[in-house]
Design brief:
Cytochrome p450, two-stranded antiparallel ribbon, 18% strand
Length: 157
């Protein structure tokens, strides 16, 4: 009979530093939304381009998060990009899975907390095995999701 481990709880969240890096790197490669839109309330100049008041600005997370301008080997999964040492030199908005500035997602902190607790809880009890085909084909729409089903198997540890 399998002995149950202690389930991760709020008292353990601060211990999940590497897990937080893994979640951040996952969202860098597969952001929750494909792009973010903003509308300036007044004329603004961005990189030498004039944007009139009321223009629709598209901020493509997918492209920025995979740009060699901001990321070494951007297609590679590397959670340690989010270590304090490596994070310090990155421009502020090179990573923005929840948008940025005063209008970022108000659920950011709650969703990250939930993600850490859910992943830690599942991973403490099971090995997750992806049974689908790789690579996944994605449908870039308002939210990012795979075209085909993502079949997973949970093997008890």
């Amino acid at each position: 009979r399998r002995r149950r481990r202690e389930r991760p709880g709020m008292e353990h969240v601060r211990e999940f530093e590497y897990l937080e890096w893994v979640i951040n790197e996952s969202m860098r490669l597969y952001p929750p939304v494909f792009t973010v839109f903003r509308t300036p309330k007044e004329r603004v100049e961005l990189s030498g381009y004039e944007m009139p008041e009321g223009a629709t600005l598209m901020l493509p997370q997918w492209g920025v998060h995979r740009s060699e301008r901001f990321w070494d080997d951007p297609e590679q999964f590397d959670p340690e990009r989010f270590s304090p040492e490596r994070r310090a030199d990155r421009p502020r908005f090179a990573y923005f899975p929840f948008g940025g500035g005063p209008r970022h997602c108000i659920g950011k902190h709650l969703s990250l907390l939930e993600a850490k607790l859910i992943v830690a809880t599942v991973a403490s009890e099971y090995d997750l095995v992806f049974e689908g085909e790789t690579p996944l084909e994605l449908l870039p729409s308002l939210t990012m999701h795979p075209r085909q089903e993502m079949t997973m198997r949970l093997d008890p540890r």
